[in-house]
Amino acid sequence: MTATIISGKQVSEEIRKGITEEVAQLKGQGIVPGLAVVLVGEDPASQVYVRNKEKACHDLGFYSEVHRLSADTSEEELLALVDRLNRQMSINGILVQLPLPGHIDEKKVINAISVDKDVDGFHPVNVGNLVIGDDSLLPCTPAGVIELIKRTGLEISGKHAVVIGRSNIVGKPVSLLLQRENATVTMCHSRTANMQELAKQADILVVAIGRANFIDASYIKEGAVVIDVGMNRLDSGKLAGDVDFESAKEVSGAITPVPGGVGPMTITMLMQNTLLSAKRAHGLN
Ligand SMILES: Nc1nc2c(c(=O)[nH]1)N[C@@H](CN(C=O)c1ccc(C(=O)N[C@@H](CCC(=O)O)C(=O)O)cc1)CN2
Questions:
Q1: DSSP letters along 196-230, please?
Q2: CB distance 154 to ligand 1 below 6 Å
Q3: Ligand 1 mean position, distance from CA 263 (Å)
Q4: How far is the CA of 12 from the centre of ligand 1 (A)?
Q5: Is 117 one of the catalytic residues?
Q6: What is the CATH number of the domain that holds 83?
Q7: Domain Tetrahydrofolate dehydrogenase/cyclohydrolase NAD(P)-binding spans what residues (predicted)?
Q8: ipTM higher than 0.90?
Q9: Angle separating helix axes 124-132 and 171-180, nearest 10 degrees
Q10: Separation of 132 CA from ligand 1 center, angstroms?
């Protein structure tokens, strides 16, 4: 079987084109979506992601502010900045880049972000609305997974989806979103006894466990859609997903690569959330 390679880069470009057009229309009404990104410390990967978010704002016509704070910034100082951004009219979305240094309580910071500006979709109110199926800002990576499947023209409704991983950021929300799209969802995690047997029943297999190349062809049903959310930096410096791509592509019907699969969708969905938030702030949508 020759698997379709699902390009997150290509889907991302399509979505960004649509966002750029909408932003141009809003500008005609005097509305410019604004995103504030806050980075604490000098984590090299976080610095790259923040630069990419700043570039996305520039490319798509958003107003952007990047607040680069030193690693010894206190929790109080960070909370004061979030409070200021919550009240700043030109800002529609606030994102605090994770992970934060150990002396800062991540939960406290996320809870301090205004629910309406929480473009990461991490605030407990947005998470709760996702659980009960109400409208909310959706977490970017899980929302990106759903967009990727749908825009590739693959069916979700009525399919058996198996999600490997139960993190708050990916596994849990992606399971809820697949269920919302009428998939029947099975969740697996590190204590699941018969993971291989369950995974092999999946029409759609989403993997987010943080273990490089863990899932090979022996976990995959012939023709299944395989979505790899893993991003593991190997000693060689190369990036690897949680799925052994070379092995998995021999049996799957469609598969995302790493890099170039789910990753590029994360920032694009962030821009989409910021646009949505800006429209809502002006009584549109
Ligand atoms: N506040 C947040 N912090 C973090 C999030 C998040 O969604 N919100 N997610 C990750 C990092 N992240 C965005 O912040 C992110 C990770 C990866 C990519 C991406 O495009 N990956 C590329 C490969 C990039 C590379 O070579 O390193 C790909 O997979 O093709 C975008 C965004 C943790 N923190």
A1: HHHHTT-SEEEE-S--TT-B-GGG--TT-EEEE--
A2: no
A3: 6
A4: 14
A5: no
A6: 3.40.50.10860
A7: 139-281
A8: yes
A9: 30
A10: 27
Q: Is the dihedral of CA 153, 18, 126, 70 positive or negative?
A: positive
Mutate to test the pocket of ligand 1, among 47, 49, 55, 262 (most ligand atoms within 8 A of CB): 49
Confidence band (pLDDT; 50, 70, 90) for 285? confident
Residue 86 has pLDDT above 90, yes or no: yes
Confidence of residue 2 (pLDDT cuts 50, 70, 90): confident
- Residue 125, pLDDT above cutoff 80: yes
Amino acid at 238: K
Q: Tell me the helices (H) and strands (E) count for the chain, helix number first.
A: 10, 11
Looking at the fold, whether 103 and 159 belong to one and the same domain comes out as no
Q: Please tell me whether residues 146 and 96 are part of one structural domain.
A: no
Is residue 284 predicted with pLDDT exceeding 80?
yes
Contact 239, 258 (CB under 8 A): yes
Domain that holds residue 223: 140-263
pLDDT higher than threshold 80 for residue 126: yes
Q: How confident is the model at residue 134 (pLDDT cuts 50, 70, 90)?
A: very high
Average pLDDT of the residues in 202-228: 98
Is 105 among the catalytic positions? Answer: no
Supply 138's token pair. Answer: 């959706």
Query: Are 152 and 241 within one domain?
Result: yes
Listing DSSP states for 72-109 in one string gives T--HHHHHHHHHHHHH-TT--EEEE-SSPPTTS-HHHH
Take residue 90 and report the two structure tokens written for it.
């030109």
